[in-house]
Write a structure and sequence with these properties.
The protein has eight helices and six strands; from the N terminus they run ββααββαβαβαααα. The protein is of the alpha/beta class.
Length: 205
């Protein structure tokens, strides 16, 4: 678990830098729907409970290392600011060294919507430019259904997304998401998935 400083700041969402290339847009849409259900006071309380963890990087920029889906949802809802908490101060590092440190600390995930790793230059400069990965949506929905348990392993949902990417056709996710979800649930409970974080399939003696 990351130890997060109790110092809170309010910053512009447009100024936040992602540390990954994709999100599951179905999950973003769910967060948008939930956000619209809150009244003004509830919205403030919600943001107070969901701080955006960031790394303070070169040029005083804030790099998001969790809650990319929430940040994108708030951006889509035209919210201007969000509360952040600084996990680490890496302002003194040069750009290349900064990204190497993020990579080795599992604070970045430079993989595209096809599961292909890219150079750090390919990571978007804004949460508005994060691309949709339907397999990440599948992994997120599956966890909510109890297909696997929530884990502290960094980017665990992306590990599950890649597992399904190798076993389910993308066309199925786009045309029959519920059918793909049913197949994913069976796969998640199989021994094929027992190496993944949060696996909770049947155990035989």
């Amino acid at each position: 678990m990351h130890v997060r400083e109790p110092v809170l700041q309010k910053v512009a969402i447009d100024s936040l830098r992602p540390t990954q290339m994709t999100v599951g847009m179905r999950e973003v849409e769910e967060k948008r729907k939930r956000w619209r259900q809150y009244k003004d006071k509830k919205k403030s309380e919600y943001l107070g409970r969901h701080l955006i963890p960031v790394i303070l990087g070169p040029k005083e920029r804030h790099y998001v290392i969790d809650h990319h889906h929430l940040t994108r949802a708030l951006h889509e809802e035209r919210e201007k600011e969000v509360l952040i908490t600084v996990v680490a101060d890496l302002r003194t590092l040069g750009r290349d060294e900064f990204w190497v440190v993020l990579d080795h600390r599992s604070w970045c995930h430079p993989y595209d919507d096809k599961g292909v790793r890219h150079g750090f230059d390919a990571v978007p400069k804004s949460v508005a430019d994060l691309r949709d990965d339907p397999y990440r949506s599948l992994a997120g929905e599956l966890r909510r259904l109890g297909g696997y348990s929530k884990e502290t392993t960094p980017f665990s949902e992306f590990l599950w997304a890649h597992f399904f990417r190798l076993r389910l056709k993308r066309k199925m996710l786009e045309e029959d998401f519920d059918g793909a979800l049913a197949k994913a649930l069976k796969l998640a409970k199989s021994t094929e998935a027992n190496y993944l974080p949060g696996w909770c399939g049947p155990v035989t003696d």
